[in-house]
Amino acid sequence: MTSVDELPLFNAMAAPEWSSDLPGVCAELFHHRETPLLLSLDGSVVVYGNEDLRRLAADPRIGNLPAPLLARAFQIGAGGSAFERLVANHVFTMNPPEHGPLRRLFARQFTARNVGRFAAQASSIVDSVIGEAVAAGESDLVRDLANRVAVEFWGELIGLTPAARRRLAAMLEEVTSAFFFARTPEQTEAVDRVAGDYLALVGDAIRLSLAAGDNELLTAMADEFAAVELDGRPKDLGQLLGAVLMDGFHTLAVGIANVAHTLLRDEAAWHRVRADHTLAPAAVHEALRLAPPSIFTQRFALDDVEHDGVVIPAGTALTMLWFAGNRDPERFPDPDRLDLDRPRAGATTFGGGIHLCPGRTIAGLLIEVVVQALTRADVRLTGAAEWVPASSMRQLTTMPAVLTGQLEQR
Amino acid sequence: MRITFVDASGAVHRVDAAAGTTVKDAALDNAVPGILGECGGCATCGTCHGYVDQAYLDLLPPPDDIESTTLEGVAAELMPASRLTCRITVTDELDGLLVRLPETQV
Description:
The complex is a heterodimer.
Chain A: E1 2-3, H1 22-32, E2 37-39, E3 45-47, H2 50-57, E4 62-64, H3 67-74, H4 82-88, H5 99-107, H6 119-136, E5 138-140, H7 141-158, H8 162-175, H9 185-212, H10 216-226, H11 237-264, H12 267-275, H13 280-290, E6 297-301, E7 305-307, E8 310-312, E9 317-320, H14 322-325, H15 360-374, E10 378-381, E11 386-387, E12 396-398, E13 400-404
Parallel strand pairs in A: 1-8, 3-9
Antiparallel strand pairs in A: 2-3, 4-6, 5-13, 6-9, 7-8, 10-13, 11-12
Helix pairs in contact in A: 3-4, 4-9, 5-10, 6-7, 6-15, 7-8, 7-11, 8-9, 9-11, 11-13, 11-15, 13-15
Chain B: E1 2-6, E2 12-16, H1 23-29, E3 49-52, H2 54-57, H3 65-71, E4 82-84, E5 97-100
Parallel strand pairs in B: 1-5
Antiparallel strand pairs in B: 1-2, 3-4, 3-5
């Protein structure tokens, strides 16, 4: 048996900008592949192989990192900070018994069977947003497409006013620094403030919509929430859903931008999808495999776990390198190549286990709609896209482009 | 134990699986197309949905609450024979199991 302290160090994380070269980091990881687990500089266990990620994610003894530890890992605020309150209401920091019923009340509305009912709304919003971009000429596909689509879609579902949507769009840009490996004190203060403002804005909108009594989606969730009689649940649906939708707004927007950028950079793939829109789901899945929004997240050993001869003691944090699982050559031959014909199985884009992202299906639908609409227009990137350099999110800050042409009738 | 999968195109895939493994893993280990298993076997994702032949359905314990909830959201048609293959453990009496796979899992 090997103890965690004896694991080789994952040296690549020593340089903050390591996240800027994911193919390079993966090549290094998989070239050596000395042991299935490594040790990070912060003392957490690093998991990177596809099979190891999937096995450990599916192990019920590997839970979520509790909110106080997550806030500490993010280095935002001491106990009781707005950021900590926000993440404490998120199912991504919950463990049994609260996790299951609270995750389910959201996930149930967005299963593969149920998301089709949002398709028309998604198409309408995407067409409108792209139509505005065409009319404007020069656009930033991050700000004017990805962020707008995410804000408009979820904003419409929960009843955000146009003014609130504009405020939210600004918040999305400010909250980006939450994921930075290093922040200025001013950035940290801003993130904490925005976390509080965000939860108030979205939580209030949800409460108002519920009070109006005409939002079937929220009412169904509220009914299910009321039946969850656990001390550890958030105080109301607005607090829970507000926290969960931080990913609906921010991570979805990052995903839209990453997919658009990845496909626009691959001329052959772009033209294939343009000629055959039935390839859109494969294109989205494959582009997200190469450019997943979440580079890594942390999990937490709820009990002692033995994994391939390594004893992971209860209380140990695990750094799950989801991006690496997506480029594991044992799982994905020629892993850096965008291959629209690659079998769809095994990607770790959305995590795994019982904590698998509950919004992955609706996110996939929205991004497919964006890809279909974009490939009906003419898109030309007009400047260098810029990536956030040192962050746990693979995120573009800007993607200048010109959109021309008329959107053809569906 | 022998398991036969029939995918949506009608193609037949016969695999051998050891007792104790799950039917989902038997499919993935043998690259049977039509099973995704995105969550890794926690009955969370509903992407290992299959239709179990009636002759074997009665040999299985009924779905628990978690499996039932997830089955409600599967992409393809839900039928009385619908099960999540991650919840079926291969046993001696399941030798010869026949599972038909749906047109889509997502």
